[in-house]
Amino acid sequence: MVIHKNNLHFLRFLLATLVIVGHAYALTDPGNTHYYRGHYVFSSLTALSVNAFFIISGYLIYHSLMHTGTYRQYLTNRLLRIVPLFYIVIILTVLACSFFFVPVQDRPYWEQTGTWDYLLNNLTIFRLTHTIPGVFISNPEPLVNGSLWSIPYEIICYLCFSALFLFRDCSRQKDLIMIAGYIACTAAYLAVHVFHLLPGSGVTDTLTRCLLLFFTGMMTARFLPPAGISPLTALLCFLAFAGLYYFRQHLFYEDLYMLFVFPFSIFIMYIAFVPNRLLPRFAKLGDASYGIYLTGFPVQQMIISHFPGWHPLANASATCLIVVPLAFASWHYIEKPILSLKYRVK
Questions:
Q1: In this prediction, what percent of the chain has a pLDDT beyond 90?
Q2: Of the four, 46, 77, 103, 137, which is 20 to 30 A from 170 by CA?
Q3: What is the pTM of this model?
């Protein structure tokens, strides 16, 4: 699907671990009172990491659309990659949280509606519930798995841009549609975040941002070969976007920094494809990024429940020691075998 010798596995692994570090500060010190500088730096890195995940997804999905035999195969590949592990994590989380339950109104864990609401709502993927009554109530934040929020938006991006499949053999029409789509995504982002021409909400704000990030990755895949990016160009692109992100509160419109996400995408793709001998070998270990991303948050909450006084970096380190081996095992014994089923679909 994509050039085989690349650093994408390592890059996504790094991004997933950075998300854990950022969440450690947010979960242990949500009021930002004790670890101010670390909280700001790592929460910024977490946001940038999630942005990078959507850009990389857009890049990979473009190649999947262009090289998958049928539309049915494309949808099957996407569902097999996202849904099975998502369901497994939800079910295992509900089971594990029974050990961290404090009775609510003397009702056992399995007899309260909140437990089943969490399970059944999250299994729909699009009706996410983030708390279970009585679970993690002594933690600074009672959320069970805040990382789940991005999965519905990822699936929406898969579906929205899959229309390009119809034009993949028509180069000129495809390019015109991609340019028009990118302009539309940018206009929607401006309308919601900057000019407030459309009613804003948590869903519309997040959706317009995710669509813009995802489509930026697709545009990068179509119009910018990674081999054509020089180190100086990559550095300047990163400094431009990072500077705008860091000083975004001083912009006339704070969310304008997202209009410069294309330079950030260029930097991400440079890192993903810069020639080297070491990082491509990381791919042989497997793709643990999705498992790390899904399981990191609840494991962090469990550690906070037992060791509430730990420094955020201690929490992040302990979490990584637990979830990284589990994620690699998940890839080899769950995700990879499930993905092999895609070859049965014509």
A1: 53
A2: 77
A3: 0.91
Residue whose entry in the numeric block shows the structure tokens 């095992």: 329
Phi-psi region of 286 (alpha: psi -120 to 50; beta: other; left: phi over 0): left
DSSP-derived letter for residue 193 is: I
Residue 333 and residue 163 in contact, taking contact as beta carbons nearer than 8 Å:
no
CB 134 within 8 A of CB 94: no
User: What angle separates helix 261-273 from helix 202-223, to the nearest 10 degrees?
Assistant: 50
Return d(Cα 308, Cα 312) in angstroms, integer.
10
Tokens in use for 92? 């295992």
Name the band, by pLDDT with cuts 50, 70 and 90, for residue 31: confident
102: helix, strand or coil: coil
Query: pLDDT band for position 1 (50/70/90)?
Result: very low
Greatest distance between any 2 Cα atoms in the chain: 66
List pLDDT tens digits, range 278-318. Answer: 877 888 889 999 999 999 999 999 999 999 989 999 999 99
How far, in Å, CA of 50 to CA of 18, rounded? Answer: 9
Written as six digits, the tokens of 143 are 């959320």
Lowest average pLDDT, out of 27-36, 244-253, 287-296, goes to: 244-253
The CA-atom distances, in angstroms, between 256 and each of 63, 105, 200, 267, 286 are 29, 48, 16, 19, 37
Residues 6+ apart with CB under 8 A from 313: 21, 24, 38
Residue with tokens 């119809």: 166
Q: What is the SS3 assignment for 137? A: coil
Residue pair 55/305 in contact (Cβ under 8 Å)? The answer is no
Residue 337 is predicted with a pLDDT of: 94
Residue with tokens 């699907």: 1
**Which residues are registered as beta bridge partners of 104?**
107
pLDDT range class, residue 345, cuts 50, 70, 90: low
